[in-house]
Amino acid sequence: MKFTRTANANWKGTGMEGNGTISTQSTTLNNAQLSFKTRFAEGVGTNPEELIAAAHSGCFTMQLSFLLSEAGFVPEDLNTKAKVTLEDGTITLIQLELEGKVPGIAEEQLQELAQKAKAICPISKLLNTEITLSVVLTA
């Protein structure tokens, strides 16, 4: 299976005083506010690190549900918190915290499947992917 998803960011002004918006193809984010305060302080809106945390927690949790199903389990509830740490301009740590209610599974087996999900979910593997860039300067 191959598909492409899109998002768009727009920014006006300087990094400190400017502001922007982020929108997604699905319109779940539709001109969501982005600013210095939303990224580095406590402003209303979103930021890249929060979006990475959302993407990673969603990807991991869905991957785990597939693995559990393949192993014959039906999860009642999987809740994953992802904490993304930005330090000196670099993401230095992503902590995934899973709480799962899976009837009939042993803790060791859930641990094993969760470790596998962490290793194979596409967002976990993202940093090992090819990155391309095209640039167009408009007047």
TrEMBL record:
Gene Ontology terms for molecular function: peroxidase activity
InterPro entries: KH_dom-like_a/b, OsmC/Ohr_fam, OsmC/Ohrsf, OsmC_Ohr_Peroxiredoxin, Peroxiredoxin_OsmC
Residue segments, region Disordered: 1-24
Polar residues bias (residue ranges): 1-11
SUPFAM superfamilies tied to this protein: OsmC-like
One GO term of the biological process aspect: response to oxidative stress
Name of the molecule in the record: OsmC family peroxiredoxin
Organism: Flavobacterium circumlabens
